[in-house]
Write a structure and sequence with these properties.
This protein has about 425 residues and is an alpha/beta fold. The chain folds into 2 domains: about 220 residues, D-Maltodextrin-Binding Protein, domain 2 (3-Layer(aba) Sandwich); about 180 residues, 3-Layer(aba) Sandwich (D-Maltodextrin-Binding Protein, domain 2). About 25% of the residues lie in helices and about 15% in strands. It has 13 helices and 16 strands. A hairpin with a 6-residue loop joins strand 14 and strand 15. This is Phosphate ABC transporter substrate-binding protein. Keywords: Signal. Pfam families: PBP_like_2. Belongs to the PstS family.
Length: about 425
């Protein structure tokens, strides 16, 4: 993917209903319009190839999670680019929608009144890697298929580096042996996302849990401050600071961060999804093949293990979770905010892990030459959740937990649950609720 200065349009062909397929064969294939997360853009690009072109296409713009959310919530395709027109059918965001965003959409005056309720579903499980350039020699675990030890970092290292408290590798402690990584000066440039980014959201969600600016006593032992700032979960990394440190450099999009790191002559640290790093983590990803970036392993302070950012270790961090409306999780399944698992400081697995979400509508009108928009969305989601695990693994991601897939199929891709949450439900999508 390139940066949002060169918006990339990816065509996704979707399986549609038998009626839609017969129409598609006779005219220009129907299309859906969506965009957002650059994290999942290579995966969605890979998913393109499994759908026959005759069945219809969709267009995805890799513009970042924040722009994707805004495009969907306002049904405003100009967030994908000033010349983009049409109806915004879906968005992908690594940052969950806030309760205020959901409330504004569904309340009087919000688009949900006429478009129908929005649906927010976990799309994939992802680690957020810490890529490194010109780093010291590591002593941590190697990535799968590699024999090169990784540079291991713990939470104190992460908080110090990303707050600007630690600016040189000769200040960073190796959690494997307790020694400083360098005996000579190796200044660190931190590359961060300039745009509203779900990748930033997942990183700061963890930093907010583990970083502290004042000493405190834990189990009778005084723990020193490990950060210059107090982090809050946010899509705006630069907004965490009153003044961003001079040793930090901003870049737009996942590809922009990777390019900025690779262009550094000195040492650099950033944060990326695995599909922009290397083929040990994402063997099928074109950006990973091109970038070939080293990544750190992270020390899980609960388990005591140094953990690499594989999709399996991200799934371990998510743990055993259940969707709302089940015996194990009795939260309200009609509330879209309840469908996002929380793993911001896991007791096992890779410490910076979470899910990326897809946002769709419950109700759709026929548009963009597509007489069966709702069916197209259902078919796309069915294929994603049941058939594309190898694509996800090839890009460094994992499928969402099976309990969620079962519930998604029962609640949203059909109505076997009887909750009336399914896409295109005629008892909801009727009258003044005309759909988007």
């Amino acid at each position: 993917m390139k940066s949002s200065k060169r918006k990339i349009c990816q065509a996704i062909t979707l399986v549609i209903s038998a009626l839609g397929a017969s129409v598609a064969m006779a005219q220009t294939p129907p299309s859906l319009l969506g965009g957002g997360s650059s994290l999942v853009a290579p995966t969605i690009g890979s998913e393109i190839s499994v759908f026959p072109a005759a069945d219809g296409t969709a267009t995805y713009y890799s513009v970042g999670s924040g722009a994707g959310q805004s495009a969907f919530l306002n049904n405003q395709p100009s967030f994908f680019g000033s010349t983009v027109t049409g109806t915004v059918d879906f968005a992908n965001s690594d940052a969950p929608l806030s309760t205020s965003q959901i409330s504004a959409y569904t309340s009087t005056g919000g688009l949900g009144v006429t478009n129908g309720p929005l649906i927010q579903l976990p799309y994939i499980v992802t680690p957020i890697t810490i890529p490194l350039v010109n780093a010291p020699t590591g002593t941590g675990p190697a990535l799968p298929g590699s024999t090169t030890p990784t540079v291991a970092l713990n939470d104190d290292d992460l908080c110090g580096i990303f707050s600007g408290k630690l600016t040189d590798w000769n200040q960073v402690t190796n959690p494997v042996n307790g020694s400083l990584y360098s005996t000579t000066s190796k200044p660190i440039t931190v590359v961060y996302r300039a745009d509203k980014s779900g990748t930033s959201d997942l990183l700061t969600a963890h930093l907010a849990q583990v970083c502290h600016t004042t000493p405190f006593v834990r189990n009778g032992v005084t723990v020193s401050a490990n950060s210059n700032i107090t982090f809050t979960e946010s899509q705006n990394f630069g907004g965490e600071f009153t003044t961003v440190p001079s040793t930090f450099k901003s870049a737009t999009g996942s590809s922009g961060v990777a390019a900025s790191l690779l262009a550094l002559s000195g040492a650099g640290v950033g944060y990326l999804s695995p599909d922009y790093t290397n083929t040990f983590l994402a063997p099928s990803s074109a950006p990973a093949k091109a970038n070939n970036l080293s990544v750190a392993s992270l020390h899980n302070d609960f388990s005591g293990a140094n953990v690499t950012p594989t999709y399996a270790n991200a799934t371990a961090a998510i743990g055993t979770v259940y969707p709302p409306g089940t015996t194990q999780n009795q939260n309200d399944p009609t509330d879209p905010s309840q469908w996002v698992p929380n793993a911001s400081n896991p007791t096992v697995g890779y410490p910076i892990s979470g899910t990326s979400q897809i946002i769709v509508s419950q109700c759709y009108q026929n548009h963009n030459n597509n007489p069966t928009v709702a069916n197209s969305v259902i078919d796309f989601l069915n294929l994603h959740y049941t058939s594309n695990a190898s694509i996800l693994h090839g890009n460094g991601f994992d499928s969402v937990p099976s309990s969620f897939i079962t519930a998604i199929q029962a609640d949203f891709l059909g109505n076997s649950s009887g909750l009336g949450l399914d896409i295109g439900d005629t008892s909801v999508c009727t009258g003044t609720t005309v759909g988007r």
